[in-house]
Write a structure and sequence with these properties.
This protein is mainly α and 290 residues long. Helices cover 71% and strands 0% of the residues. It has nine helices and no strands. Helix 1 (2-54) packs across helix 4 (132-154) and helix 3 (109-128) runs antiparallel to helix 4. The longest helix is centred in the N-terminal third of the chain and has 53 residues, at 2-54. The two termini are 42 Å apart.
């Protein structure tokens, strides 16, 4: 009987992994749209605000542009992407990474984002289960993925994503899903103040800006989700991942001339802490005890 239950549980885990993977692939396809369009939408909004302040009689951009409009299309020939051409991973493989109309190469980043989002979603569900915590952790995972990619591309961490997630984290912890509300509130405040203090000290010493305010808000958001206790581990892991990945890019000769954004490393550290934070902390305490 015990063997039968173990086999049934294993089969259910595999099924749950596959379902989470497929759903994550779909979300990943949408995240590609978010990552591409949100910065453009922000730029258009800033231009419109500038026109309004200057009293210009013309608008910055007359054509409608948001996450839903216009439909996805080839940037080279304006070919409208059909449904069968937008199936995560499969369409890219079938089309051999090219537009079906003009044959222009489609960046491999699109299927990579889909695949990564699918895998991360599946890991979250396997680790946390089909529970309120697991489902909410998926939402945070998708938000971190979008923020990391946008920051890498543009060195922007849009408030349109960060701030709603911050408030959502506090609302989630009102019900004690991840941590209690008091720890979440302190985490949100401390997360912002820690980086703000570092920023001010760095600027006082060097006269330069060491990071952007978006990083303050991102760490504040992570504190709102996981509580102030998670902040030291997030900061350590983000610094470690930044040094590791940045060093690897330098060794490979792929270092960028522009400043390296810190948001992706914070996102990586925040996700690792969300999934394995307790195990990492416990392992460190056991190691330190020897």
């Amino acid at each position: 009987m015990a063997e039968y239950l173990a086999l049934l549980q294993a089969e259910f885990s595999v099924l749950m992994f596959l379902v989470a993977l497929m759903f994550g692939l779909i979300i990943g396809s949408f995240l590609n749209v978010v990552v591409y369009r949100i910065p453009i939408m922000l730029e258009r909004d800033w231009k419109q605000q500038a026109h309004d302040i200057l009293g210009s009689s013309t608008t910055a951009d007359d054509d409608k542009f948001n996450l839903a409009f216009p439909d996805s299309h080839c940037p080279a020939c304006d070919h409208k992407i059909r449904v069968w051409e937008n199936i995560p991973l499969l369409s890219y493989a079938y089309l051999k990474g090219k537009c079906s109309q003009c044959g222009i190469h489609i960046s491999a980043r699109y299927p990579l984002v889909e695949f990564a989002t699918g895998i991360l979603t599946a890991i979250v569900i396997l680790k946390l289960g089909l529970t309120p915590l697991g489902l909410l952790a998926c939402v945070l995972t998708w938000g971190l993925m979008a923020l990391a990619l946008i920051d890498y591309d543009t060195q922007l961490l849009p408030d349109d994503i960060t701030l709603p997630l911050l408030w959502f984290g506090l609302a989630v912890n009102y019900f004690g899903v991840v941590t209690n509300l008091a720890d979440a509130f302190v985490g949100a405040c401390a997360g912002y103040l820690v980086f703000w203090t570092v920023f001010q000290l760095f600027k006082l010493i060097t006269g330069k800006d060491g990071m952007g305010y978006g990083d303050f808000k991102l760490l504040s958001m992570l504190g709102a989700w996981m509580g102030w206790q998670a902040l030291p581990l997030i900061i350590i892991l983000s610094s470690f991942s930044g040094a590791l990945i940045g060093g690897a890019l330098i060794l490979m000769g792929r270092a960028r001339d522009n400043p390296i954004p810190f948001g992706p490393y914070l996102a990586i550290a925040g996700w690792i802490t969300l999934i394995w934070g307790e195990q990492i902390t416990l392992a460190y305490l056991q190691f330190a005890a020897f």
